Amino acid sequence: QMADPFLYNTGERSKYGCLGHEVQIEHIKAYICRPSFFTDKAVIVVHDIFGWLFPDIRYIVDLIAGHGYITICPDFFKGTDPWKTTDHWVDFADWMKHHDPMKVDKEADVVLEYLKEQCGVKKIGVVGFSWGGMAVHHLMLKNPQLAAGVSLYGRIIRDSEERYNLLNPTFFIFGEKDHTISLNQITLLEEKLNQYCKVAYKIKVYPGQVHGFAQLKPEDMKPDDKPYIEEARNDMIDWIKMFI
């Protein structure tokens, strides 16, 4: 049986009044937020297991848009149910088989085309959390159209040496107290990237932080965690701004 990987209670969340709106792009629904001025830069946000409707992820979309990017979070689950707080962790492995973060290429392509054709975007980055962090790691190995990526606490999958030959600059963010990702795994990731990666990369571990720490809304943050959450988010934005 798998331990509950989230140390916070995702059920106890304050509501969030979104700044963006929903759009339909081919077979995918998406939440999009635009800055108040024209820009030809965009960021795709890949949600976690709780899906594209979860208030925390929409808050992140709005936050990134506030820095001057057309920001979009597609429903990578294509209308199927996300993981729910009432679901049992014993079923998680089975659920993951039907929600594979390595099978996001088609949806990513649809959204990339939409951003370029409909929104006049020239440069695109991608940011993903947990399940989405795994998807970002995958996309940064496969899709040269993504100019930069930030993977936040995506479980590290080691299936081959190809996992480390990133196409464009990628930043990996982890929490020190994340019991789904060991510090040994992070060290190995660093060694392998050092060996195989030909582009800029960065790995940073934030003290005392658990899985999912960086996507909390301000009112849901504990005072001790707040500086690290804000630092991680500033680091994420700085990385995007450096390359996009």
Protein described:
This protein has a single domain, classed as Rossmann fold (3-Layer(aba) Sandwich). 31% of the residues lie in helices and 20% in strands. It has 6 helices and 8 strands, in the order βββαβααβαββαβα. It has an 8-stranded mixed beta sheet, sandwiched between helices. A hairpin with a 2-residue loop joins strand 1 and strand 2. The chain is globular. The model has no long low-confidence stretch (mean pLDDT 92).
Please outline the helices and strands.
Layout: E1 21-25, E2 28-33, E3 41-46, H1 55-65, E4 70-74, H2 92-97, H3 105-119, E5 123-129, H4 131-142, E6 146-152, E7 170-175, H5 183-196, E8 201-206, H6 226-243
Parallel strand pairs: 3-4, 3-5, 5-6, 6-7, 7-8
Antiparallel strand pairs: 1-2, 2-4
Instruction: Give me the Rg, rounded.
Output: 17 Å
Low-pLDDT residue intervals, each spanning 5 or more residues: none
- Roughly what fraction of the amino acids lie in strands? 15-25%
Integer average pLDDT: 92
Q: What is the helix/strand order?
A: EEEHEHHEHEEHEH
At CATH's second level, what is the architecture?
Answer: 3-Layer(aba) Sandwich
Distance between the termini: 42 Å
CATH superfamily: Alpha/Beta hydrolase fold, catalytic domain
Number of strands: 8
Shape, please?
Answer: globular
Enumerate the strands of the largest sheet in spatial order, edge to edge or round the barrel. Answer: 1-2-4-3-5-6-7-8
Number of helices: 6
CATH class: Alpha Beta
The major β-sheet equals: 8 strands, mixed
Structural class assignment: alpha/beta
- Structurally, how many domains make up the residues? 1
Percentage of residues assigned to helices: 25-40%
CATH topology: Rossmann fold
